[in-house]
């Protein structure tokens, strides 16, 4: 199909109404209404006009795998819907559709959509705005018609929902009407007697529409991409699940297995035992870990006392690393992931991390290994916050703690900028609370005698509370953003051997 990269218009219908109305149940009523409106507004079809139809499957973006079970012969996958992510994407979708010509009521769209009610939609391509408005006028009398809008194929959310997920229904070319389902062209032979009807099993639609956003993101596409990248992220647990599924299909699994993922805290539950770093991989005196420790010290300036810095580097890198060498034995699910780390001398290297998931247990680090030069590969370290000052540039006294505080704030802002608050829908209101829940966070430091705490006191940052020292993180009452800032702030403190914890406060 040509010209799909041109203007396409979307017509939305309340499919719940159709399913619950005995007159419309098990029918193609909304599609018939679109066909009739199309004929009434344009007696002659436009060449290269395409029609796509289906359900608005926004919930497909929000499915989380919560468990994978099976053996070499069978496998079952359980999923759930991330309702917070769904609310974020729904609001973004309504906002992006509202940026151009549209006739739907935002309130009705949001009220229908938030219940994860499927909305039926028809997309007509290669028609003018004037033509789309006439079709919309014809449909407005229908109680179950929600409204119309302009699609934006420069937005990956639109491209997926209103192109990838829809069925190719009708296409007109050279006085022919191509169709894949006779139910889609009821009465078309009387509407357009001069056209030849031809059944085709499958349309070969031009992929241009699907790929526009990859080369030319629109303004709305940039906003949607920010959400998709930061909220529909390829989490490490998801990668493990995909690796297990591949291994089953490739015949590499020969025993029973079970992977449980408890969202939304699965990623936070990844265990990196202190002793695996401090008493093994970074311990020069350890009979097996000694050679590794020498490499990390000589090449990355990471020593035994820097175990907490190494831990945070692994936590940063594990989400980018690919899951490899997966196998399952009597102890659990085992695999490795090669990840990039930044040394305390500013040198970047890829190292190998080994992991295990015991039955009903979290993901746990079992070892780390240096990699040869030929096994190194490029990693985008620029997308990570700096967690510590290079040892070569390390300062002393107040200057040292001031620099750590600066880095902590920088890291906090980095994580806060990636935070996308979950909108709160309140009954009786027309618009949700976009900033999410109201609250803030505290960073708690336990050692009142630490030099960093003294620096904070001298610079009037934070305050003493009982036997602890508190730094209040309040991003104007935006709870999720405050917590994200605090998490980034603590990463720097922990990397510099400053014991701390986050306390969250909802108002």
Mind explaining what this structure looks like?
It is a single chain. With 507 residues, the protein is an alpha+beta fold. It contains 16 helices and 18 strands. The chain has a 7-stranded mixed beta sheet with strand order 6-1-5-2-7-8-9, sandwiched between helices. Strand 7 and strand 8 (176-179) form a beta hairpin. The longest helix has 22 residues, at 397-418. The model is unreliable at 1-5 (pLDDT under 50). Residues 264-371 form the DUF6883 domain. This is DUF6883 domain-containing protein. InterPro entries: DUF6883 (IPR049250).
Mean pLDDT: 88
Estimated share of beta-strand residues: 15-25%
Number of separate strands = 18
Characterize the biggest β-sheet. Answer: 7 strands, mixed
Record the strand order, biggest sheet: 6-1-5-2-7-8-9
Determine Rg (CA atoms, Å).
28 Å
Distance between the termini: 54 Å
Q: Name the helicity range.
A: 25-40%
Poorly predicted sequence stretches spanning 5 or more consecutive residues: 1-5
Structural class: alpha+beta
Shape: elongated
Counting DSSP H or I runs of 4 or more residues, the number of helices is: 16
Protein name: DUF6883 domain-containing protein
Domain DUF6883: 264-371
InterPro entries: DUF6883
Organism: Paenibacillus urinalis
Key terms for this structure?
507 residues, alpha+beta, seven-stranded mixed β-sheet, four-stranded antiparallel β-sheet, 18 strands, disordered N terminus
Summary of the model, kept short:
Helices cover 36% and strands 23% of the residues. It is an alpha+beta fold and 507 residues long. This is DUF6883 domain-containing protein.
């Amino acid at each position: 199909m040509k010209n799909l990269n041109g203007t396409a218009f979307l017509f939305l219908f309340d499919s719940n109404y159709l399913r619950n109305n005995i007159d419309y149940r098990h029918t193609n009523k909304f599609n018939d209404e679109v066909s009739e409106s199309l004929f009434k507004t344009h007696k002659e079809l436009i060449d290269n006009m395409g029609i796509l139809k289906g359900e608005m499957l926004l919930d497909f973006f929000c499915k989380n795998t919560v468990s994978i079970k099976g053996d070499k012969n069978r496998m079952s996958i359980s999923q759930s819907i991330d309702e917070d992510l769904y609310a974020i994407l729904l609001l973004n979708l309504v906002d992006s559709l509202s940026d151009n010509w549209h006739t739907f009521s935002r309130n009705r769209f949001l009220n229908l959509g938030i219940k994860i009610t499927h909305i039926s939609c028809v997309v007509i391509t290669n028609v003018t705005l004037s033509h789309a408005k006439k079709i919309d006028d014809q449909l407005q009398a229908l109680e179950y018609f929600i409204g119309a809008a302009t699609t934006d194929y420069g937005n990956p959310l639109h491209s997926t929902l209103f192109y990838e997920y829809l069925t190719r229904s009708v296409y007109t070319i050279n006085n022919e009407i191509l169709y894949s389902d006779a139910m889609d062209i009821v009465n078309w032979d009387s509407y357009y007697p001069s056209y030849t009807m031809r059944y085709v099993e499958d349309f070969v639609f031009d992929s241009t529409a699907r790929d526009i956003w990859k080369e030319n993101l629109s303004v709305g596409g940039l906003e949607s991409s920010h959400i998709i990248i930061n909220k529909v992220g390829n989490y490490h647990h998801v990668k493990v699940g995909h690796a297990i599924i591949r291994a089953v299909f490739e015949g590499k699994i020969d025993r029973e297995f079970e992977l449980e993922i408890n969202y939304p805290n699965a990623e936070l539950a990844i265990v990196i035992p202190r002793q695996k770093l401090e008493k093994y991989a970074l311990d020069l005196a350890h009979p097996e870990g000694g050679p590794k420790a020498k490499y990390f010290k000589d090449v990355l300036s990471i020593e035994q006392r820097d175990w907490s810095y190494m831990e945070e580097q692994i936590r940063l890198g594990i989400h980018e690393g690919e899951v490899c060498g997966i196998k399952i034995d009597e102890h659990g699910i085992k695999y490795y992931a090669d990840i990039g780390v930044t040394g305390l001398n500013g040198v970047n290297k890829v190292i190998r991390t080994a992991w295990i998931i015991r039955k009903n247990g979290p993901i746990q680090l079992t070892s780390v290994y240096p990699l040869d030069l030929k096994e190194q590969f490029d990693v985008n370290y620029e997308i990570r916050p700096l967690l510590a000052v290079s040892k070569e540039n390390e300062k002393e006294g107040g200057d040292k703690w001031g620099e750590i505080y600066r880095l902590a704030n920088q890291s906090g802002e980095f994580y806060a900028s990636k935070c996308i608050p979950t909108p709160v829908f309140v009954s009786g209101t027309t618009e949700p609370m976009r900033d999410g829940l109201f609250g803030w966070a505290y960073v708690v430091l336990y050692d009142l005698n630490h030099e960093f705490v003294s620096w904070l006191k001298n610079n009037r940052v934070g305050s003493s509370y009982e036997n602890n020292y508190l730094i209040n993180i309040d991003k104007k009452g935006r709870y999720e953003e405050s917590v994200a800032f605090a998490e980034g702030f603590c990463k720097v403190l922990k990397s510099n051997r400053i014991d701390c914890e986050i306390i969250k406060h909802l108002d």
